[in-house]
Amino acid sequence: MADFKIKSVFDQDFKEYGRVIEGYNLSDILDAMENTPMPDDVAYVPSVPSLEALNIKKALTSEVYGGLPCQIGYCNGNNYALNALEYHRSSEINIAATDLILMLGRQPDIEDDFTYDTSKVEMFKVPKGVMIEVYATTLHYAPCNADEGGFRCVVVLPKDTNTDLLESVDKSIGDNKLLFAKNKWLIGHEESGVQNDGGFIGLKGDNLKLDN
């Protein structure tokens, strides 16, 4: 891999971006994730009925999200680049079904023109079997490979997050220009191609890449 400093989610520095959640039995969902696809690129599915039928769904809804309805999906595949950063108006829960690496930033570091300097990104390894909360103010995107075998990551969010917008918004108001899907504000890098789908290009600097 390229010469980046990759920290652990158990390091003190991760507390600025999220927290490790312990005390839950994740064996069923980790077993179920072994049967999910492993594409050559990246596949994200917001809601998977077979994952949402597991017992962990009740605990995530009633405890982790405090009674709010949530969805359980996955983000799997092979990825070595930053490409974009996004944020939600809510925390995201990730469960690492393999070792994986997250590239993270801080929403307060977004400039007034909604650009963001990629040199501020930090990288954290999430070991297999670890569940974390990624705070709403944390910029994040698809995980990256921790090894050549690809990654599998459970993604838990409030219901309907990352699904298609049903109404248009005035792009001249606030961060509306970043609104890409329900509860999803996105800043892309020019190398990412998200502009082809209407995404806002605002990442300045290198499109950070790990060696593959």
Instruction: Give the overall average pLDDT.
Output: 96
Q: Write the CATH homologous superfamily.
A: Jelly Rolls
Helix and strand succession?
Answer: EEHEHHEEEEEEEEEEEEE
CATH topology: Jelly Rolls
Head-to-tail CA distance between termini = 7 Å
Tell the overall outline: globular
Strand order of the largest sheet: 2-10-6-13-4-3
| Major sheet | 6 strands, antiparallel
Strand content: 25-35%
Structural class: mainly beta
Gyration radius from CA atoms, angstroms? 16 Å
Short précis:
The chain is mainly beta. Helix content is 9%, strand content 32%.
Question: What would you note in describing this structure?
Answer:
It is a single chain. By secondary structure, this protein is mostly beta strands. It has a single domain, classed as Sandwich (Jelly Rolls), CATH 2.60.120. The protein is 9% helix and 32% strand. The chain is built from three helices and 16 strands. The chain has helices at 27-33, 49-52, 56-64, and strands at 6-8, 18-21, 42-45, 70-77, 84-87, 92-96, 100-106, 116-117, 122-126, 131-134, 138-139, 144-145, 151-158, 179-181, 184-188, 203-204. It has a six-stranded antiparallel beta sheet with strand order 2-10-6-13-4-3. Strands 1, 7, 9, 11 and 12 form a five-stranded mixed beta sheet that branches. β14 (179-181) and β15 form a beta hairpin. It is globular, with a radius of gyration of 16 Å. The protein starts with 5 loop residues before the first strand and ends in an 8-residue tail after the last strand. The mean pLDDT is 96.
